[in-house]
Prior knowledge:
It contains seven helices and eleven strands. 46% of the residues are buried. The protein has 189 residues and is of the alpha/beta class. The radius of gyration is 15 Å and the shape is globular. The strands form three sheets. Strands 5-2-1-6-7-11-10 form a seven-stranded mixed beta sheet, sandwiched between helices. A two-stranded antiparallel sheet has the order 3-4. The chain has helices at residues 13-28, 77-80, 84-91, 105-111, 127-131, 156-169, 171-181; strands at 2-6, 36-41, 45-47, 53-55, 58-59, 68-71, 98-102, 119-120, 136-137, 142-144, 148-151.
Amino acid sequence: MKAAFVVFDRMTSLDFFGFYDPVTRLKSMKIMDDFEWRICATTQSVVDDRGLRFEADTVAQPLDSFDMLFVPGGFGTRTLQNDHAFVEWLKTANPARLKVSVCTGALLLGAAGFLRGRRATTHPSAYTELQAYCGSVVRDRVVDEGDIVTAGGVSSAIDAGLHIVQKLAGAEARSRIATQMDYPYRWNA
């Protein structure tokens, strides 16, 4: 399993880290030895909404070789959803068998056409914006449509990460990782 973790200027880092931490434990806790990831962006360096800098492993390369695409949210999504070059780059992830967003990252999945006719969620402040991209907006923390998983506001990133752990490696792996994180995981599929 090869995952593309997308980063961009003015993203919310907790959206990223909340998902990244439980999912990458699949590798560090020796649950899925073949799990690997890359930090992907359209520029070498990006800065989150508070000044934290990220360096990309992969810059402006097609995303078609990845099995999973992950897109965080943040203020940057508001302009990127209308940025033709960025949206076209995201569309190169079409072959990925799993696409995941947290918070307003759903707006970017939607702009790329991945949410068409699907149920999805996002941060409550963006429900109206999301309606233009999906079949229906669901006010749940995590919405699983099989190959598309969206999560609500910032703190739901951990729930989404643990949900994906369970989806990829089973309930025992989810429980083991949640215990290691000392996280009271409560979302049920």
